[in-house]
Amino acid sequence: TRYTTGEPIADAKAPAGPVDERWDTRRFEAKLVNPANRRKHTVIVVGTGLAGGSAGATLAEQGYHVVQFC
């Protein structure tokens, strides 16, 4: 799926419920990505400081297609 700048994201895959409980719910319901399928996924990293740059580089080394925005 392609998104354009300013377009709302219709499929956020965020679970319903209180914000403070959403991460725990998503973390336990999310499925692992098969290493053979990593190139099919694009990861967006917002922020290219030390942490964002490092996260993007690590994900790219693991086979993901990474797009970074500063």
UniProtKB/TrEMBL annotation:
Organism ancestry: Bacteria, Bacillati, Actinomycetota, Actinomycetes, Kitasatosporales
SUPFAM superfamilies, per the entry: Nucleotide-binding domain (SSF51971)
Organism the protein comes from: Streptomyces microflavus
UniProt xrefs under InterPro entries: FAD/NAD-bd_sf
Protein name according to UniProt: Fumarate reductase/succinate dehydrogenase flavoprotein subunit
Domain of life: Bacteria
